[in-house]
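cache lookup: miss for this entity combination. No prior model stored, computing from scratch. Input as submitted by user K.M.:
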Amino acid sequence: MSATDSNAVDYRRLVEDRRVHGSLYTDARVFEDELDRIFRRGWVFVGHDSEIANEGDWVTRRLGREPVIMVRAGDGRVHVLANRCAHRGTMLCWQDRGGGRRSFQCSYHGWVFGLDGRLRSLPGRSGFEGALERLDLARPGQVASYRGFVFANQSGDAGPLDDHLGPAGKALIDRALALSPVGRLAIGAGWVGQRVASNWKMWPESDNDGYHLAIAHASLQKAVPGTQYEAALFSPELDNTSQARDHGRGHVELELRSGYDRELAWLGTTRDKVQAYADALAKAHGREMADRLLWDGPPHALIFPNLFLGEMNLAIIQPVGPDETIHYHTPLLLDGVDEALNRRILRQSEAAMGPASFFLPDDAVIAERMQQGWRVDRATADGWVDLGRGVARERRDGGGDGTGDGAGRVGHVSDETTNRGFWRHYRDVMTGRT
Amino acid sequence: MIGLSAEERAEIEAFVFREARLADEADYAGWEALLTDDMHYWVPFGPAGYEAGARMSYINDNRTRLATRLRQLMTGHRHAQTPPSPMRRIISNLELLERTEREYLVAGNFALYELSAQATRELRLWAGRTTWRLRRTDDGLRLCRKVVELVNASEPQWSLAFII
């Protein structure tokens, strides 16, 4: 793309502080730019290493549209490898997950790659001249993890993962892990996918929009009064003490813990039903901290761009095309707890997310209606998405745990603080200011 | 369906076709009236060879959760089914798998055409196999278990907010 590219998208013009242009959802050129600048040159969540607990376990994912394998090698290391043979590009793993692998063999000419991606053998070696080392499986330029959350960056020049997550991003992950008495997750119940005929960016927005609950999810509130969201999200505006947070770097949060009216609201239960779990937390963290964890519960937050820490769920926002996204989710199963607790988490996850759940299909149809509504040209003068709610009452804040770098903002849970935070970082990324 | 009298066969077919029509026409109250109090409604994620509840399912409704599902649909504010998708399903290849004194286990294939009328207005095709466990009660046959194994049960799905 040169400076004279007459079709280049001017992101400075299309992303303002309080409004963004609707064409950003539907413009095919924008989507291509995002695949490059966000999903190729930036850090993207790949998976959690507890999904591949044993040597030879693997799962397949996509970084942007590029297929990769996340695999556990013999030395315990996690590798993220291109899911295509280095020879002619045949996909090596065509299912979602598997185990017991010692290598990957291509079904076309029989090339064999180790779990570390190195070319191990191939039939008819003498016909190949020169070094074959360059025919190892391709891999992202950077792969790094934080507490088992594996991230990758294709280009290799995104800077340290630490800088991308920042103290606030890490604190969000820490809060999820603190719910395990042993500080570890046991992800592995499967990632259920919801297809949506909408742009991917509607999901970081919708997943962290505290303003839509009482309307978009009115049917659930009517059918099931008294859910965990009654006080924290459904209650009348001025009674509601939950908060919307922009942690900077595109990481945004609906902080529900300040709005809960009881402990364990986030698990839809009471202490007597999960006494063994409460005791295990107290043993691990001390009584006072355990009591706080049982009140606070997990975060409800986006790690930019594609990881949603959705309370007791992990979700991956997977762009497919300008008009199509897959919203994958899996329950946030905990290590070091009894099976009954994890079954409860799984049951809750089935109710909350997925194509037949009580929440997500309603968000999906809203996103699809927005996608239809934003079929506007970049030049359409009145094609703007208004994101100004709560600007006047928003405050600067260091971050939910006092760990931020001063770039944070906090507002009422129903304010568009989260969405503005997403777009502010988006503009920085798309204009090369990160 | 081998193992059934002509009368039983006609009765079972009539039940299955009626169940399909009530679901197609979003007659939630009429559909709910066909169920026993211990109804289990299961749409597995991936192949069905696992214990529901041990791994993720698209739907794993006991009677209580199914009542919630229907109540949500009947609020009139379930956006994902507002309006209800116009649907028609074709049921075929019916077989009797098992019978006891009071119950029949019947399976068949289906193809369901759904107009996603809520936003995209596209025609979607759902296909798979349904297993019905029917119980003879004082009120006639009732449905106590329905399992729907989608052909593409391992793939991401469009919204499945209707009764499949």
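stored under new cache key. The mean pLDDT of chain A is 93.
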